[in-house]
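Retro notes (design track)

What went well: tokenization of the new backbones is finally stable.
What didn't: we kept losing track of which sequence belonged to which structure.
Fix going forward: every design gets posted as structure first, then sequence, in one message. First example under the new rule, 382 residues:
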């Protein structure tokens, strides 16, 4: 048996709609599902129309790549426009968060509202029983006491695991979702694509915010939000170090782009050669506070409060148990416990202080390889 199919249940003619992005992961997902006996329909989602040009956005080339893959694999292919839904459900929230001084993660909301909501509804209208994507994650059906429930699991390839971005999925969504490459490593996915003659086998992975593309981020935000310059101050001394163009352009832990490097006489001898980092935003005074040194205490948080909670099982985790959590995607899992604050807020207490905990980002909780869910960070403390 093909080892790549070992993690995929036989399809027996069942119809599944695969979100084809033009990338190698979704392409191999479609290929494996067809090999496993599913009737596969490829669907390309167009989620952004404003300034959709080749200068900054890869949508046109991605569509060409997705159509080419569908042709090689031999599956039906469709294009659907979710731009209006995306603007209402994702982009509007993105702008509100930045205007409030927070740093949102639109990929999390896009997965919950578009890829596993609008896309799922559309697939059901096409007569499909399930959808599939190229995410590096896994779904496990529970047995025994919890039979009928589904768990969201980390992808086998720890360097590519995307369960962090999927933590807002619910039981209804997971019950109809397949992640065909979740049990594979990226190198194997590329090898499968190459062996099948897929032209995108070596295609570079997309990064960054999908609707921003390659355009300068400041330039993009200026089109939608007013610019309000203000002071940059040293958090320890309150001394004015420079001017910022707008708090929305800065995030906690930011080092590059502060434009205060090389200042002399602004710190004591012990720290005069340390880099500056954004540490705090005062929205009322429109002041950006910075500190010297990566390990400055102001950049370390032992606890955080999260709101807008979403738990995969439908039930909140036990309080005071030992779990692990990520306060941003690229950080390693950190041991923690959870304390309930109220129905839609919880406090996450870490065993060791975490660096640059940022309001607006998601904190995602794990029990071993099981993603339990999480919420949006609203505040942090020492």
């Amino acid at each position: 048996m093909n080892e790549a199919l070992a993690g995929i249940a036989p399809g027996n003619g069942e119809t599944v709609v695969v979100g084809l992005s033009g990338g190698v992961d979704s392409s191999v997902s479609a290929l494996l599902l067809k090999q496993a006996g599913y009737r596969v329909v490829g669907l390309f989602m167009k989620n952004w129309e404003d300034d959709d040009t080749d200068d900054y956005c890869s949508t046109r080339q991605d569509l060409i790549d997705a159509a080419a893959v569908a042709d090689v694999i031999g599956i039906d292919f469709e294009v659907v426009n979710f731009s209006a839904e995306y603007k209402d459900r994702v982009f509007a929230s993105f702008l509100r968060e930045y205007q409030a001084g927070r740093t949102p993660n639109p990929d999390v909301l896009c997965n919950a509202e578009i890829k596993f909501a609008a896309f799922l509804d559309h697939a059901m209208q096409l007569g499909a029983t399930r959808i599939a994507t190229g995410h590096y994650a896994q779904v496990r059906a529970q047995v025994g006491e919890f039979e009928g429930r589904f768990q969201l699991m980390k992808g086998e390839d720890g360097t590519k695991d995307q369960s962090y971005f999927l933590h807002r999925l619910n039981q209804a969504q997971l019950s109809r979702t397949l992640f065909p490459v979740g049990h594979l490593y990226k190198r194997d996915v590329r090898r499968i694509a190459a062996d099948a003659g897929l032209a995108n086998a070596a295609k570079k992975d997309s990064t960054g915010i999908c609707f921003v593309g390659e355009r300068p981020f400041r330039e993009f935000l200026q089109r939608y939000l007013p610019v309000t310059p203000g002071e940059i101050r040293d958090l320890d001394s309150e001394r004015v170090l420079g001017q910022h163009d707008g708090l929305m352009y800065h995030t906690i832990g930011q080092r590059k782009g502060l434009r205060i490097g090389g200042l002399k006489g602004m710190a004591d001898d012990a720290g005069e050669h340390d880099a500056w980092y954004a540490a705090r935003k005062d929205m009322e005074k429109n002041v950006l506070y910075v500190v010297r040194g990566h390990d400055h205490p102001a950049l370390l948080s032992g606890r955080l409060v999260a709101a807008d909670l979403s738990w995969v099982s439908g039930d909140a985790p036990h309080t005071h148990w030992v779990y692990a959590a990520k306060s941003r995607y690229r950080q390693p899992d950190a041991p923690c416990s959870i304390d309930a604050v109220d129905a839609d807020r919880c406090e996450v207490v870490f065993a060791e202080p975490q660096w640059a905990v940022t309001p607006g980002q998601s904190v995602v909780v794990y029990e071993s390889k099981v993603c339990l869910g999480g919420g949006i960070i609203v505040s942090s403390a020492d």
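Added context from the reviewer: The helical segments are 24-35, 59-73, 83-99, 106-125, 171-174, 186-195, 217-222.
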